[in-house]
């Protein structure tokens, strides 16, 4: 063990309550595997850097493949580099239950995002082997390629390929941070554009998908609970908004004779920050990208371009919020004389989780003495892509201080193991459904 590896391993076990290591689930094994993967692409800040389609992502996949084989899983790989570890159930003709996530990271991320979902799914299979349990239905552990999208400013690439949602024409035009085309980059890890374009799974082979992921928020921490049930995954809708006024001299133009685009945009930003709560408690709207022109200290802003990120877990309520935001801009145009223009530049449909799936997860939590807690996901996940085609569910693990995509990202081992116990119970109960 290297110095950093020992540090993470020991820290994970430091406060671990080993009473949760039952039914074949091992906290020590999970801590060891999290630590081993943490060393792959370790940054100077003790974070993770494993870009999609990199040799580091590939190295992490290969390590998990070894563990899949130890658990008795038959391993296969598709043309997008997605890895599948399959356990044939008593009836191999039945559709499989699938669980997993990803092992790629943002440039200086943490050691739990994605990785915990892969290792949780694998821990279930290993526990079955260790206890002699054989499921009725086939079970698959999946590692999706390039979920984070840090390389091509996209993301969810592997899950899109599996379900057949890849737009190859656009994908082949993508360039990474080194200005290399997609086709060239994937050759680094033994993939080709031709085989990639033919990737796609017969989705009738999969009954359902369930993903474990860190919360990346503070709700579970505030509730004092180890895990929670995701009610839906918010789809982002991005508006490009332009306010077109009139640039002028800051000293010679009277205050009552201006068409200041930045003043209009500022009013717009302030007002839309209050709109989501007029819809429901899951909708959000964010302005995080603003361009002011000509951007001179002594020049009245003549044009402002900004982007609004609008999200909710339901399509109808998200649409209502978009409409309210647009009407707000139109009203500002009326009383300021600054022209308001808007254009949709990104639209991913929200994916609600069925109440039936939520209830089954709640039953598993109750059986294990955990109070069911429900929360939505504002971030996108592979379950969002898969959930468009296959009934899907998600479990969130409590995150310390809500920190994610950061070396300080942390989930206590006791919380992780309790979540895996819920996952295991949930999957086992699906064997008789």
Automatic annotation (TrEMBL):
UniProt cross-references to InterPro entries, sorted A to Z: Amidase_Cbmase (IPR010158), Bact_exopeptidase_dim_dom (IPR036264), Peptidase_M20 (IPR002933), Peptidase_M20_dimer (IPR011650)
Residues annotated to bind Zn(2+) 1: 102, 113, 213
Recorded GO MF terms: hydrolase activity, acting on carbon-nitrogen (but not peptide) bonds, in linear amidines; metal ion binding
Family matches, as Gene3D superfamilies: 3.30.70.360, Zn peptidases
Cofactors, names only: Zn(2+); Mn(2+)
Segments forming domain Peptidase M20 dimerisation: 235-328
Keyword Zinc among record annotations: yes
Cofactor binding, note field: Binds 2 Zn(2+) ions per subunit.
UniProt superkingdom: Bacteria
Keyword Hydrolase: yes
Key words of the record: Hydrolase, Manganese, Metal-binding, Zinc
Binding positions (Zn(2+) 2): 113, 148, 405
Annotated NCBIfam families: hydantase, PRK09290.1-5
Family: Belongs to the peptidase M20 family.
SUBUNIT field: Homodimer.
UniProt xrefs under PANTHER family: ALLANTOATE DEIMINASE-RELATED
Protein name per the record: Allantoate deiminase
Organism per entry: Marinilactibacillus piezotolerans
């Amino acid at each position: 063990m290297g110095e950093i590896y020992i540090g993470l391993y020991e820290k994970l076990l430091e406060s671990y309550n080993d009473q949760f290591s039952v039914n074949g689930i091992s906290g020590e094994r999970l801590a060891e595997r999290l630590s081993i993967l943490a060393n792959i692409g370790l940054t100077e800040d003790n974070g993770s850097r494993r870009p999609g389609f990199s040799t580091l992502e590939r190295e992490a996949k290969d390590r998990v493949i070894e563990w899949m084989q130890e658990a008795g899983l038959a391993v296969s790989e598709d043309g997008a580099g997605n890895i599948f570890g399959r356990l044939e159930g008593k009836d191999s003709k039945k559709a499989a239950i699938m669980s997993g996530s990803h092992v790629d990271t943002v440039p200086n991320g943490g050691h739990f995002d994605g990785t915990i979902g892969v290792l949780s799914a694998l821990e279930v299979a290993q526990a079955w082997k260790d206890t002699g349990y054989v499921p009725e239905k086939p079970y698959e552990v999946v590692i999706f390629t390039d979920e984070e999208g840090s390389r091509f400013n996209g993301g969810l690439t592997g899950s899109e390929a599996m379900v057949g949602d890849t737009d190859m024409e656009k994908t082949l035009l993508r360039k990474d941070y080194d200005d290399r085309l997609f086709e060239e980059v994937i050759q680094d890890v033994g993939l080709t554009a031709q085989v990639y374009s033919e990737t796609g799974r017969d989705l009738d082979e999969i009954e359902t998908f369930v993903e474990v992921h860190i919360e990346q928020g503070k709700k579970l921490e505030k509730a004092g609970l180890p895990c929670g049930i995701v009610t839906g995954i918010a789809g982002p809708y991005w508006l490009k908004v332009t306010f077109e006024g009139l640039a002028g001299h800051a000293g010679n133009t009277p205050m009552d004779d201006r068409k200041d685009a930045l003043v209009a945009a500022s009013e717009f930003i302030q007002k839309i920050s209050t709109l989501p709560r007029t819809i429901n408690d899951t909708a959000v709207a964010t302005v995080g990208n603003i361009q002011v022109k000509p951007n001179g200290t002594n020049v009245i802003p003549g044009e402002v371009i900004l982007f609004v990120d609008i999200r909710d877990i339901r399509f109808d309520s998200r649409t209502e919020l978009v409409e309210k935001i647009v009407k707000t801009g139109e009203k500002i145009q009326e009383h300021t004389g600054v022209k308001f223009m808007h254009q949709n530049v990104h639209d991913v449909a929200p994916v609600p989780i069925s109440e039936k799936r939520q209830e089954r997860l709640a039953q598993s939590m109750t059986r294990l003495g955990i109070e069911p807690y429900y929360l939505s996901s504002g971030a996108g996940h592979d379950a969002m892509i898969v959930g468009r085609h296959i009934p899907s569910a998600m479990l969130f693990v409590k995150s310390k201080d809500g920190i994610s995509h950061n070396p300080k990202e942390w989930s206590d081992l006791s919380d992780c193991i309790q979540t895996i116990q819920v996952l295991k119970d949930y999957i086992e109960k699906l064997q008789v459904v």
